[in-house]
Amino acid sequence: MQIKNEIAKIVGKDYVSDSIKEREKYARDESLLPPGVPDAVAWPGNAEEVGKIVTWCNEKNIPVVPVSSKVHFHGCSIPKQGGLAVDLTRMNKILEIDSDNRLVRFEPGVMWKQLAAELEKKGMRVIMPLLPHGDRSVLTDTLEREVPTNTVYDYGEPMQSIEVVWPTGEIFRCGSASVNGFPESKSRGANPSGPGLDFYRFVQGAQGTMGIVTWVSLKIESIPRIDKIFFAPVDDLPYAIEFLYRILPRRIGQECVLLNNTDLAAIVADTMPEDFDGLRAKLPPWTLALVVSGLLRRPEEKVAYEENFLKQVLKNEFPKLAFGDNLPGFPGLGRKFLPMLRSPWPTDVPYWKNRVKGGCQNLFFITRPSQAPLFIDVVEMVAARFGYPIADIGCYIQPIEHNRACQVEFSFFYDKEDAQETALVAALYRETAAALLNEGAFFTRPYGELATMVYERAANYTMALKRTKRVFDPKNIMNPGNLCF
């Protein structure tokens, strides 16, 4: 009751609650982590209210758990030690769209469907990861460094400037937004490196443990004038990866994804589960999709050049790879799949990762593209030991920055209503993660149990993180229980 009464003085009595009905809404997410109930929930309306909330919680040693949307997958927003859940969904303003400087600035409650729709009205788009949930916070996915489907180096680091509330309650602006006169200053917040020491990296991938970001400025791009999508059925994965090593460093293509038949069927099936099994059986083991685009300047010449380069490379160096504007046997796939790559997943359809069985546990990491087949073999061997059907494993390979690296993502689908199957997938996840770590997988975003595994193996790094945490959050109130804190 004390928390509710004190926070009500900040946000108003209508925007704080300690009822068990409201609190239980924040106890679980789409992950397999155990539930945790906050002691109260607050819905601030602006950065000043967030700062006052955090200041009071810091004085009283009350944990603060930032929550940006109702869609979370990794357990970061589950309260591990009770405290106050700070729900930021009221802060849902798009503060500015600057087409000339190709920037958009918005609050944490702005979801993918909202941002994509508003940018489209201006002839602009945001470079997005593969089919993000329409009701998921764009700011959260940006802070978590979700990998975009576009491999062009320029889009690999979309975040420019942020405003953050530190665990002491202080409001701070990072990057060139920290200069006097922002947002009317000439800098426009268009550079993540501001004057003096820059702090924006501290909050990236921190899972809400370093502060609460109240707005972010992102790069945006114009909608292409010309788009052409190409597909290649892939039976020999190393051969296709060698092809990507040849073309992507030459800046050929924009979006580029490699999906196995299970993931692709889950994405493009019209109805589930009726179409899923038949579609998966007809699809090739892997499908490579590549988009060639012409933006505002001489788009026809750009597309013609890239098409010609592709034809020459395929003819002279990779004759076994059959590229076409449709996947053989699947007419119309190009017209369907390209708009999907540029849009969030529709909110009126079950999310694609939950379409197969209702639940999905993802395991993803960074590696060299040439190593991806090795890690796939490791996962299949572990799955076989657990009796999990190899054909049911979704796999997605996302080239990063012209194939300099790639993210490999495995999806273990399961029935959330089946306790035995849920327990099996939880155990399979742990065993697979350990096996991948032993083979050199680089987990840049470790969540839950995986965080414990990763930080136990990186003692010096963990000590450095904890020292940094003590500087910014000496009382450890900010989302305790995540990462190594």
Summarize it.
The protein is α+β, with helices and mostly antiparallel strands and 485 residues long. Helix content is 32%, strand content 20%. The mean pLDDT is 95.
Tell me about this structure:
There is one protein chain. The protein is 32% helix and 20% strand. The protein is an alpha+beta fold and 485 residues long. It has 4 domains: 86 residues, Uridine Diphospho-n-acetylenolpyruvylglucosamine Reductase, domain 2 (2-Layer Sandwich), CATH 3.30.43; 129 residues, 2-Layer Sandwich (Uridine Diphospho-n-acetylenolpyruvylglucosamine Reductase, domain 3); 122 residues, Vanillyl-alcohol Oxidase, Chain A, domain 3; 88 residues, Alpha-Beta Plaits, CATH 3.30.70. The strands form 4 sheets. Strands 12-14-13-16-17-15 form a 6-stranded antiparallel sheet. Helix 11 runs antiparallel to helix 12 and helix 12 packs parallel to helix 13. It is globular and about 70 Å long. The mean pLDDT is 95.
User: Which strand order does the major sheet show?
Assistant: 12-14-13-16-17-15
The level 1 CATH classification of the largest domain is: Alpha Beta
Beta-strand portion reads 15-25%
Q: How many domains comprise the coordinates?
A: 4
Helix count, per DSSP?
14
CATH level 3 topology of the largest domain: Uridine Diphospho-n-acetylenolpyruvylglucosamine Reductase, domain 3
DSSP strand count: 17
What does the largest sheet look like? Answer: 6 strands, antiparallel
CATH architecture of the largest domain: 2-Layer Sandwich
SS content category: alpha+beta
Cα(first) to Cα(last) distance is 27 Å
Instruction: Give start-end ranges of low-pLDDT stretches.
Output: none
